[in-house]
Amino acid sequence: MARLPIASERRDDDDVISTLAGNGQAGFADGFCATVRFNQLMGVVVDAQGAIFVANNVNHYVRLVAPGDGAVTTLVGVGGEKGFADGQRAAARFNEPYGLALDVDSNLIVADVVNDCIRKVTTAEGRVARNASAARGAASALRKTAHTV
Predict the structure, then answer these.
(1) Which H or E run includes 134?
(2) Residue 91 burial (CB < 10 Å; 0-12/13-18/19+)?
(3) pLDDT digit string (tens) for 43-87?
(4) What is the pLDDT of residue 134?
(5) What domains can you pick out in the chain, each with its CATH number?
(6) Among 17, 40, 107, 139, which is most exposed with the fewest C-beta within 10 angstroms?
(7) At a CB cut-off of 8 Å and minimum separation 6, what does 122 contact?
């Protein structure tokens, strides 16, 4: 399996590539640009407001890159703590989150690989749930692959 780069990059109008977040060193740290650390990014999705959601696979959490200032924060989960728990923000646990998609209501759909399930995150509250509506939303969202990387 190919490994994705740790630093996320973008190309501006002049074809210049710049780093949005990360410094190329594996780890976990929230913050701004070069102070941020990721470990095996496995999924990225951008919402209509420009927020970037990142599945940080080995660190077992989902991160948010804020539109505007680019601050990176942990949306759900706790860095380095794998597990399986629904709940809000730091109470939630994942085990290698992988793919991401947005459903029609802008909820984040996460493929929680080792836990063998699809999880739904209400992005405004940071609440994680595993339920039938999440599965239905995931099926719809994953058909719209243009929104995922």
Answers:
(1) helix 132-143
(2) middle
(3) 999 999 999 999 999 999 999 999 888 899 999 999 889 999 999
(4) 47
(5) 40-144 (2.40.10.500)
(6) 17
(7) 107, 129
